[in-house]
Amino acid sequence: MDIIAVKRKCDYPREGTIVKLTHIKDDCPHAEIRFNTPRFEKGERKGCSEGLCYLHYTPQGEWKQVNGDWKFIKAPIQQSAQEGYFHSITNTYGMTNEGLKTMTNQMLEIKNILIHRVLANREEN
User: Fold this and answer.
1) Residue pLDDT, tens place only, 57-80
2) CA–CA separation, 60 and 32 (whole Å)
3) How far apart are CA 87 and CA 58, in angstroms?
């Protein structure tokens, strides 16, 4: 998997998988993933398969009123990052069955990288 960093959306490559990390100051950052891969039929290029996926971590807890203000109180025991990340796949325009499988596998790989590399590095520091 290639890694690039861009400042502007117009600098994104036209094809490939782009991962944008959001909420990076939170304990578990979120990821927005854009898939854009060429689609072929009978050896000829027939456009692109596109998809959009979101990985969001949802902490356990509840909203409570403290001194008149509403605050989110995290549960004392949080679920693991593996269980806490939820997936949302949208905009699968032109996606073939094989493209959907590839996108899902890439999304799970990105989730594992996020958990085992990004979050593991935070725990070490």
Assistant:
1) 888 889 999 899 999 898 888 778
2) 21
3) 11
